[in-house]
Amino acid sequence: MVILTELQRCSMKRGEPSRRTTISAALHKSGLFGREARRKPLLCKKHMTARLEDSQTMRNKILWSDETKIELFGLNAKRYVWRKPGTAHHLANTIPTVKHGGGSIMLWGCSSAGGTGRLVRIEGKMNAAMYKDILNENMLQSALDLRLGRRFIFQQDNDPKHTAKIKKEWLQHNSVNVLEWP
């Protein structure tokens, strides 16, 4: 771990004093940026190996799922550009658009370490009841097709329709283990 003041001190010892801003600019140019150091538990090699083996075993039992929106023309997200003042409308700084967005489709899909499961087109706006129907018609069959066994773990994010009572009851009724998501 290198601290900026240490670099400045080293440059002074070498007889080539440099300002902190000069050192910082050189580091930024090299792709290095000052960030807070992360904290993590101190583990010995044996513990790291055991954790890795456990995670690899568990990974093979997980059925991952998510929804996505695919835009026919472009992306439905903000994009940023670096530009000079007065160049906002230059071709290189703009994103071409079409009227009404060009259309899009919503999809639900799942996958595991063993491959991809079913991919389903979502018609209209999805709610908890529709999500439960998608799981009922596709999730269990995907787990079967991917040979995950009866004790697989289902992963989903914390979208409100994923945490709705109707869907939780369905998962419980079908004895599906759910990976807790932060």
Automatic annotation (TrEMBL):
Superkingdom of origin: Eukaryota
Domain Transposase Tc1-like positions: 4-53
GO BP annotations listed: DNA integration; DNA transposition
InterPro entries tied to this protein: RNaseH_sf, Transposase_5, Transposase_Tc1-like
Pfam families (alphabetical): HTH_Tnp_Tc3_2 (PF01498)
Protein name: Transposase Tc1-like domain-containing protein
Gene3D superfamilies assigned: Ribonuclease H-like superfamily/Ribonuclease H
Transmembrane segments: none
Single annotated GO MF: DNA binding
